[in-house]
Amino acid sequence: MLGTLELNTVAIIGSSLGAVSAVAFALDYPRRVSRLILVSPGLIGLDLNHDPKLVAYNQEMNDAGQDNSWDTYAEVFAKAWLDGPTRSSNEINAHVRKKVVLMVKENVAKRKPSVHLGFRMERTHAERLNELAMPVYVLLGTLDMADIKMAAEKFRAAGAEIVTFKKAAHMINLEYPQLFNLQLIQLLIK
């Protein structure tokens, strides 16, 4: 597609699991990526089972999915990824929370969730971070899950610059859209 659009290089931005895809693209096509901006990134090759709250939320979502209890699934998803591990639901902007729950419900109505990502590789992304030669920026909420913070630290160790958002969990762009957009623009023109 980049060839069709006559674009030699592009900045790639990915959030959460989208960051996993962004890293995969940057590793496969490093000459096509001018910079990589990862928001609350996951990381293939990093065991994400250290955070007991994340493990518990994943089990609750799995159980709800098995029971086709999609309202419960959406609520638990919002608890895990919007509220984060340290806040209660009433500490979140009610309008934002309602939108997240609705987005999740609409998404699971179209396709049932799956944890299988379908990446096949000889070496994991975590093992190849030193191959990312372009500037890499990680946007991280200080209230995100411990495992996401661990992934961010792996990126930092490989040379990424970390930009933190205080009082934000995983969905920085929804909690602080103006600040998020301003930071994104600054990183894109940097």
Could you characterize what this model shows?
The protein has 190 residues and is an alpha/beta fold. 46% of the residues lie in helices and 13% in strands. The protein is built from 7 helices and 4 strands. A 4-stranded parallel β-sheet has the order 1-2-3-4, sandwiched between helices. Helix 5 (146-157) links the parallel strand 3 (136-141) and strand 4 (161-165). The longest helix is centred in the middle third of the chain and has 17 residues, at 94-110. It starts with 9 loop residues before the first strand and ends with a helix. The relative contact order is 0.17.
Brief overview:
The chain is an alpha/beta fold and 190 residues long. Helix content is 46%, strand content 13%.
**How are strands sequenced across the largest beta sheet?**
1-2-3-4
> What is the overall silhouette?
globular
Structural class: alpha/beta
Q: What's the main sheet like?
A: 4 strands, parallel
Task: Flag low-confidence runs.
Answer: none
- The proportion of residues in beta strands is 5-15%
Percent helix = 40-55%
Total helical segments: 7
Distance between the termini: 25 Å
Give the overall pLDDT as a whole number.
90
Calculate Rg over CA atoms: 17 Å
User: How do the helices and strands follow one another from N- to C-terminus?
Assistant: EHEHHHEHEHH
What's the number of extended β-strand segments?
4
